[in-house]
């Protein structure tokens, strides 16, 4: 180690990694007043993935906030030169996405609708108009396109130079050729790090180490499932017909993106199945390096490119660039504070959108460090969303090639992953297989989506192939009784003399109700936003079990533990794998429970729970329902789930899957976290005030009180569509009097009401108001209901033996 007198032994924040994410985070920290922030990079700035990026910036993403990050980037990349004197190489020539299949046309029209919802300029153009914008393209098979004028591209190295210049001007310091060799924690918190130039004390680290982040995070005891994959683009020497900068041309049906580059062509691809990179290939000295060309792998893409760009036939190839990029199991990056270790902030696993998102993501990460939370809801990139099973090298290496391949695939409803499956089985897995389940993977679990004919169905935007099968399951629950597997809920035991006081502080509802009660509640942040929703069962004076969302377990555990005061005598334990949960729902539920030996359950009131015996197994049943049919959620030891299931099945109940459950919960207006609820929503706008005990002193109460006093803004409503053959999916604009007044958050066919139903947040809400939902640029009339679409007089069971 060469000592450097200027190397600090303390910094408020240390950023590790000098790619676009590290440089942007440092810049924003400095702008936010963290003027002693330090960036350490073990090689040179941009030497990882950033330097060889194709660096396109396309704004539209699947949510408003993710799109907002890129819109922020665009503004920043345009304005940095004026601020720093260093150009970023920003070229705003727009982007053109062509469609060559009818299904892709639907997809791009849905994208266009989404763009309007998010305030991004986008416009459908004909094949002829597309050709005018890209005259070198063969447009014979083009059906239409979407034109987005605000998109562009940047020079990644110049961008980082500008960010760094801006950061340095505010006091930030950068140390290249300085590797981080260890991260120091104490009591689950960051206290410092070891570098090749010596240690630095700090309580905040921004880990922006790209494809090396899994190893980097492991130094702090944190699991970050990112894995590298090869990523290709072809560069040619100048080509006739390219006279200046052109828009980016996206031909997603052929897996291609195309743009000009120094008078030649740049043709990049997201081939259907990428190539994962073996560990060890990309050591710590992998700086400004590339991977070997693989023409055999690229050949099918070359064939596609030759068809789309006949000029390529005679173009001289400069290089087939093969660079590494990091991917995650679900195709979204990782941003925010780690659940396991306080003070470790993650900005990595960028899934090929690091340049586009880098500006906004660096801003959001810096805000997270400074303010203690992200500036907006970004749950799709929450570091806590991955279960432990995803940090497995074999699973990651199997999944990431498919993640790369799906980057340009149409996101059909019901689309599933085909790689790295069967990571987690529910306790009823064998029963579901025997019953002919079609499975979907969620949070690593295999869950039965629906039951029915063999073979995987074709996907599409219209009436799904499983429509009738799901309908039959809904009717089973509605007219008789169905069994739902709810075992994937996160289950958290909260126990101790101070459990009630503690829960009453972190939850908005009254958690002090007597043992035997079930309570639906929300955990709010100090801004009144919903961090989680949960159901709590109280067993005795000191013991509760919380049931939280399947994907929420890691995040909710961290939230609870972080809000526990050191003087509170409470133990918080993850019991997810210990228990199975079987939903027995429908009018025959009472008979069935009775026949299975649990007659005592009939005495339980609504939102009460109690013990019973089924098939010789001690269970606890809670009288509540997520589907709008009366029944119980029955919890039993995981090992005994098969016995309980068999007894209920023998007594007449039949299995139903996740699709039936989702459709039913939307009819009944039961909200789902991640769809209808997130940290930007609050219980008031969501219509959940019944779950707020104003007379208790819960976290977020002050902020919520202020919201209550303001005029209502967005409100959750039900929309009933006129057209029974419309297929809303959620995330569609809602129009009234020609202007957008809101957006759908969930949608399904409501089998009990025999029409499509959507849940939506709208700015104007009146019962019976007529609105229109934009589904792929077609307006579908709908009626607003302030109530649930399906709310039977009695979600009651038939009296026994009726
Ligand atoms: C061929 C190709 C084309 C692409 N095209 C686009 C595109 O068009 N648009 C787009 O938005 N994105 C694109 N991307 C993706 C984009 O380039 C990346 O997402 C982005 O550059 C990642 O930036 P990063 O800062 O996360 O990682 P990196 O740039 O890899 O930076 C991480 C840095 O961390 C350093 N580091 C690691 N470990 C340590 C340690 N222990 N101590 C100190 N330093 C450490 C590394 O040396 C490295 O410099 C493309 C990627 C490829 C490969």
Protein described:
The chain has 17 helices and 39 strands. The chain is globular, with a radius of gyration of 27 Å. With 802 residues, the protein is α+β, with helices and mostly antiparallel strands. Helix 2 crosses helix 8. The termini are far apart. Helices cover 25% and strands 27% of the residues. The strands form eight sheets. Strands 5-6-4-14-15-16-13-17 form an eight-stranded mixed sheet, sandwiched between helices. Strands 8-2-1-12-19-18 form a six-stranded mixed sheet. A six-stranded mixed sheet has the order 30-31-32-29-23-33.
Summarize the structure.
This protein is α+β, with helices and mostly antiparallel strands. The protein is built from 17 helices and 39 strands.
Strand residue content: 25-35%
Structural class: alpha+beta
Q: What is the number of helices?
A: 17
Overall morphology: globular
Which ligands, by name, code or SMILES, are bound? flavin-adenine dinucleotide
Strand arrangement, major sheet? 5-6-4-14-15-16-13-17
Oligomer: single chain
What percentage of residues falls in helices of 4 or more residues? 10-25%
- The low-confidence runs, each spanning 5 or more residues with pLDDT under 50, are 794-802
* Distance from first to last alpha carbon: 83 Å
Q: For the residues shown, what is the average pLDDT?
A: 96
Radius of gyration: 27 Å
For the biggest sheet, the summary is: 8 strands, mixed
DSSP strand tally: 39
